[in-house]
Amino acid sequence: MQHLDLQVIERALAWARDGETVWLCTVLATYGSSPRAPGSLLAVRGDGRHVGSLSGGCVEEDFLARLAEGEFDTPITTFRYGGGGNESDGVDGTGVALPCGGILDVLVERLVPDAETLVHLEVLLATLQGRRALARRVELDSGARHFVEDDGLGPRVIRDTERGAVQIRLTPAARLVIAGLSPVAEACARFALGLGFEVIVCDPREEVLAGFDVPGVEIEPVLPSVFIAAGGCHGATAVVALTHDPRIDDLAMIEAVRTPAFYIGVMGSRRTSEARAERLRRSGGLNADEIARLHMPIGLDLGSKTPAEIALAVMADIVRVQRGRPRDAL
User: Fold this and answer.
1) 20 and 158 share a domain?
2) How many of the other CB atoms lie within 10 Å of CB of 328?
3) How far apart are CA 265 and CA 16, in angstroms?
4) Strands (E), the chain
5) Cis (ω within 30 of 0) for the bond into 297?
6) SS3 state of residue 327
7) What is the edge-to-edge ordering of all strands in the sheet holding 41-45?
8) Residue 299: what pLDDT?
C-alpha cells in the first residue's frame, strides 16, 4: 500500500500502457462536510475496475453506474454531488445527496491511451514521487492539459473562472522514513500505512530485518544516513529514529537536517535528548537552527508507555505538523 494518489496514478499509467482508456476524476472543491479533500483522485477503467476515492462510496457508485450507461464520453466533464447545478460556475448537478451533507465538485478527464496520455501520466507519477514541484493546468472547454512550474504551496486546486481552467497542485506522496527497526518503529510503520504514507524502513542489520514483516513497507538494508544522504527525502517526508542506538539515530539526524523533510524526530527522554543535542553540536557539527528542527523528545506527550502508544504519539505529532497545527492549538 502506498499513498493513495500515488497508487491511483501508478495504476492509471499501467492501464494506459495496456491500451485501456482511463477516466481520471479529481475533486475540485468541497463545501461543508466532505470525506475527501480537493485534489483527491479516482481512476476508472471502462470495465469498472477502479482505484482511489472521491467520497465514502456513494459518489463512486453513482459514477460507475453512469459510466456503464455510456456517459462521460467527452474529454472533459465537470459535475456536482450534494447540491444543484450552478450555471455561474459551469457545474452540472447530479441530484445525488451526500450522507455527510456536504457538496463535492468533480472533474472527469477521459484519457485515451495515446502517447500524449502516457507522457502526461508519467510526469504526474514522477511529481508524486518527489522529483519535481509542478501544477497541472486543465482547460475545461478543450480538455487541453499541461504542466506549469509551482512551489507546491497553497490550496491544492485553483479555479480560473475567467479563462475556464483549473490548476491542480501536485505534491509528493507523503513519505515516512524509519531510521532503524525497533518495536516502536514496527508499530509506527503500521500506523503510517493506515494514514496513507509511503513507508520506507532503513536498517543494515540483517538479523533485525529477518524478523520484520509488514506488507506494503519498502525495506532498504542500509544505514539510514546513507539512504537519506542519497536523496531519500523530499519536502513531504518525515524522518523518525526510534532505536535508542546513537550509532543509527545520531547519523540519521545529521543527514536529515540537510534535507527539506518537514518532520525530523528522534526517540528518547528529555535527559537523553539534551545529551543528544550536545553530542550533535559537538561531534556532528550541527548548529542551533539545525538542532531546533529536531523533534526530541519525539511525539505528543500522551503519557505513552507501550510501543503502540508511543507510535501513536509519534504519528499524531507528524500529522499535526503536516497540517500546520501548533502544539498549543490542540
Assistant:
1) yes
2) 5
3) 40
4) 22-31, 41-45, 50-52, 76-81, 92-93, 103-111, 134-139, 145-149, 157-160, 165-170, 175-179, 198-202, 218-220, 237-241, 263-266, 294-295
5) yes
6) helix
7) 50-52, 41-45, 22-31, 103-111, 76-81, 92-93
8) 94
36/44 Cα distance (integer angstroms): 17
**What are the cell numbers at 180?**
532503524
**Which range marks the domain in which residue 254 is found?**
175-329
What mean pLDDT value characterizes the chain? 88
Domain closes at, from 119, 152, 170: 170
Taking each helix axis from N to C end, the angle separating 4-17 and 115-128, rounded to the nearest 10 degrees, works out to 160
Cα(307)–Cα(329) distance, integer angstroms? 26
163 and 254, same domain (yes or no): no
Q: CB neighbours of 131 closer than 8 A, spacing ≥ 6?
A: none
Rounded-to-integer distance, Cα 42 and Cα 278, Å: 48
Do 49 and 131 reside in the same domain of the chain? Answer: yes
Asked if pLDDT for residue 2 goes beyond 80, the answer is no
Same domain, 127 and 101: yes
**pLDDT of 152 over the 50 cut:** yes
This prediction has a pTM of: 0.72
